[in-house]
Design goal:
Layout lengths: L1 H8 L11 H10 L5 H14 L3 H6 L2 H8 L6 H16 L8 H4 L7 H12 L8 H10 L9 H14 L5 H14 L18 H5 L15 E9 L1 E4 L2 E8 L10 E2 L2 E4 L11 E9 L3 E9 L15 E5 L9 H4 L2 H10 L1
Helix pairs in contact: 1-11, 2-3, 2-8, 8-11, 9-10, 9-11
The chain binds iron/sulfur cluster.
Amino acid sequence: MLLTWYHIHARPLPWRDAPEPYATWLSEVILQQTQVATGTAYWHRFLDHYPTVEDLASAPIESIMGLWKGLGYYSRARNLHAAARAVVHNHQGELPILAKDWQRLPGVGAYTAAAIASICHGEPVPVVDGNVQRVLARVFDILDPVDRKAGRDAIRSWSEALISREDPGSSNQAWMELGATVCKPKNPQCGKCPVQVGCLARKRDTWSARPVKQAQKPPVAMTVLFRVSLRQRKNTREWWIERRPERGIWGGMECFPATMEEESAPTGCDGKAILGPFEHALTHRKLTGWFVLDSGAQIAHDGQEKPNGEWVPVEDDSRAWPRMVEKALSELRTWAVKN
Ligand code: SF4
């Protein structure tokens, strides 16, 4: 019933036509935190620039980050690149087949691995994303919070029991599609749902309370101080930017030197405030940003310019900045050319 519904109602997405592992992998990574409409354009752009895993592996990370610009969650792009390099250098360019082998690649979790292995190779491993979680929590009226072990285990058991052995790829996609298009968080269209007859939440009218989730901790309030250092080179106004450490917030991205504190006001810098306070929300943090002028931001403890940075024209638009900084860039540029 569900598979029949899927084959009739599935949205025509380009990577579904003739699923191929590299293109499917790209689509899964791009769509992890991105709407389908936006993600599709990026997917085409990536395949045009890097048609094979070898092309992706040999591309400079700066080019990949540039192409990723606007998608956010840049660790996905860095992991994609690292995984492509691992495939080329350690596996002669052969992409894995089994889900467990996909999971050995950087950034490939259980969800992505199961999606590729089931869709491209017919391995019967269930895919559990937020959509599947919601649908199953409703169909079986699961009371355990799905963000805790008992709830996760219940969802996992049901998804393993329900996956089609004949066509696991379509089966996985059908549950995801059902959650994305019919069993939506608000106003599920139960009258059009292929599993409505067996759905306990529909029968008991509990759908609006499923899935149950444990109360999340409130986000931690933090202050970020961005230190902007400027110089004039002939007719060009330049500022100093540096690559952030791979681990941690905005890992590997280029940005003004920045420090983050659990404080309500900036400390540790006497520089003139350029812009602030500037609000930005992350999943677990509520950030308040200040941009300050600091002519020594590029200097390391040894008195030399830091090795992880460079002077770039303030008009340079090719960098992948953290979203928080990107929102302030046009105002900062206007300020920088006047000062
Ligand atoms: Fe969701 Fe309604 Fe279908 Fe149940 S019947 S799975 S609540 S859309």
